[in-house]
Amino acid sequence: xxxxxxxxxxxxxxxxxxxxxxxxxxxxxxxxxxxxxxxxxxxxxxxxxxxxxxxxxxxxxxxxxxxxxxxxxxxxxxxxxx
Length: 82
Description:
50% helix, 0% strand, 82 residues
């Protein structure tokens, strides 16, 4: 077994939870993630941390911040006729 195969085997065992004994009293990851989300929402509400934008929200924000092309004076609808 070469180094790369050993690394891949160790990673696979880690993903499967075979490297260390599993504690049946540990809460599922979904429960932990929900607790983290609730705590984060509470901290945002208390203004202790800022809300982090999702990728989609950030893209929309960037699009809104793009400079808009202003009409040229000759294209302006209220151009006085001189």
